[in-house]
Design brief:
LUD_dom, Rossmann fold, six-stranded parallel sheet, alpha/beta, globular, four-stranded mixed sheet, NagB/RpiA_transferase-like
Length: 226
């Protein structure tokens, strides 16, 4: 069904035609201006403090973080994490250029497959697009190099995130996404899916007892580079 057919059906249900030109202009301006909501003061700090806040919030939400100075140290950090969790060396990895460039060949004990996740996968390694300090949230837009299934199916998700991609507030993460997704045809582009992940999956629906891994990974580990 076309866009016009869908909108036409909505208008018929509302028993009205198209909006007047002034109302259309007002709505168009609001969409283009991206108005700000209230932004927590805790995120209005220098970048090193934003990174520290991001780490603290991830850990408060049952996630874990390890910092490494250089990207080349990511494979060793991953090996140490898997061993510490009594997990095997096999994992599925996002086919992202930044992950592909890491020195995996130097660590032959790790067994990797570059693809989207399947239900039988135990560990995924995902590329982090951005981190949001105010809540310790990861922004993970869908892309060929960042399959969404890696965020949902494996029991353990490891996200590799550069420290310079940590921002203070949600609005700044959306600004980053808009700025880096431009095309000449439409003037803008958004992914078909953007996941905002704050800690491992959890639920307390049954008897108010917290259960990790209720709807996705039960472990979330961030390797923060830089």
């Amino acid at each position: 069904m076309s866009r016009e057919a869908i909108l036409g059906g909505i208008r018929r249900g509302l028993k009205r035609g198209e909006l007047p030109a002034d109302q259309q202009a007002m709505l168009r301006h609001r969409l283009e201006s991206h108005p700000r909501h209230l932004i927590p003061a805790r995120s209005r700090v220098p970048h090193p403090e934003q990174v520290a806040l991001f780490i603290a919030r991830v850990e408060a939400e049952f996630g874990t973080v390890e910092r490494v100075p250089e990207a080349s140290q990511v494979p060793v950090a991953l090996m140490d994490y898997l061993a510490g969790q009594n997990l095997g060396p096999r994992f599925v990895m996002a086919p992202h250029p930044e992950l592909e460039a890491l020195p995996w060949a130097e660590h032959r004990l790790l067994m990797m497959e570059r693809r989207r996740a399947e239900g039988s996968d135990q560990v995924s390694v995902q590329h982090g697009y951005a981190g949001i300090a105010e809540t310790g949230t990861l922004m993970l837009p869908a892309a060929p190099g960042r399959p969404t299934t890696l965020n949902l199916l494996p029991e353990t998700e490891v996200v590799v995130l550069r420290a310079d991609r940590v921002v203070g507030a949600y609005e700044e993460a959306w600004d980053l996404l808009r700025a880096e997704n431009q095309d000449a045809l439409t003037g803008g582009f958004m992914p078909r899916n953007v996941m905002l992940v704050t800690g491992p999956s959890r639920s307390a629906d049954i008897e108010q007892t917290l259960e990790l891994g209720a709807h996705g990974p039960r472990r979330l580990h961030v390797i923060l580079v830089g």
